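Sequence and structure are kept together here, with a separate record for every protein. An example record follows, reproduced without changes.
>
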Amino acid sequence: MKGKTDIKNATSGVIVYKMFFSGTLFIIIIFMILFASCKKEPNTPRPDPTDNLALDSIIATKRNIAVWEEIYITAYVRGQHISFNWSTNHGSMVGKDSVTVKYWACPSCVGINTVVCMISNEYGSISDTIMITVNP
């Protein structure tokens, strides 16, 4: 009988060891899952949408000019791969596809003239205007 008791005790010790090991392993796995699911996303900076395409301002060297007087008009923009397209209702311009244009007006352009700058890239297009007064 003593042999059976020793085998029984030895077997129950293995069972207790297996239960302890499996329980511990189970708890460790649960903690790993909990900590992994609570992990925060890294703080990656998100760009401001206006950094992709923005026309901040249009500035002219003068806003009141005389006939045939030349001025420069510059667009201040943000973004990459920007295309420029300048236009006006009266007057002439050089550099219609650049950040700065040279503008002048003839005698038939006396009055308030509108200059439009349209910019575009892969994110879209936007435009802004500036008014130039031409005096005789």
In short: The first strand starts at residue 53 and ends at 60. Helices lie at 2-37.
